[in-house]
């Protein structure tokens, strides 16, 4: 039944008389009495006591029960309407993102935290996965936006929204015993005999550069994450090769030096599936992201 009937009944119960309820609802008293009768017929139960001489309405047992339950029904509908409206407007819902593990810290700090302040009702579902799994999740609709630090599989299926280049640095302990780490700018040749810790994302790029410049590196460890590579440096067991964004990690314990290799960088890409409509939440995030880029 139309919830307006329940709203009218609750107004009658609170007002104490049909006449006062009709005045509050701005409808004719006979019309409101008719709506009350229809509701009673629909529920097959009397809702108000009709004893003569009673000036203020009293609810029957069924009326009291309906009053309690009607409050819940109306509250539920109001909340549902509000939630649907928020989702249509993109002010609530779930932002689903697949990203390379190495980009998560930057992405959360630079974009999701400020976005969350503007849209506090939006939930965030982040999947930190490999490039292959990113591709699968985006194509399957499990995520709407991808943040990748390497080319996605089947690049023709994706639209690149933005790319950022990030140079690689060498990180070493402030008590490092390797001479190369004490220079303001380090060449690949200077690293020839220095034990190195590489993150898995940076390793192919760095090793390709070494091959190009005919330098055989001394690789002590290839780590799944950049943070793990930095621990090797912090503990003074190796120098780590990491992207510039990671320079805040262990900044009090690790010294960062530039590498004198102009083409040595990682490239992050923000992508969506080509020709696939985005939810309003995702659209709002991309608008927010573009404004953030414009301000920096």
TrEMBL record:
Keyword list, A-Z: DNA-binding, Transcription, Transcription regulation
A Gene Ontology molecular function term of the record: DNA-binding transcription factor activity
Pfam families: HTH_1, LysR_substrate
Coiled-coil region(s): none
Domain HTH lysR-type: start-end pairs: 1-60
Highest taxon of the lineage: Bacteria
PROSITE patterns tied to this protein: HTH_LYSR
GO cellular component: protein-DNA complex
Keyword DNA-binding: yes
Entry similarity comment: Belongs to the LysR transcriptional regulatory family.
Protein's name according to its UniProt entry: DNA-binding transcriptional LysR family regulator
Natural source organism: Negativicoccus succinicivorans
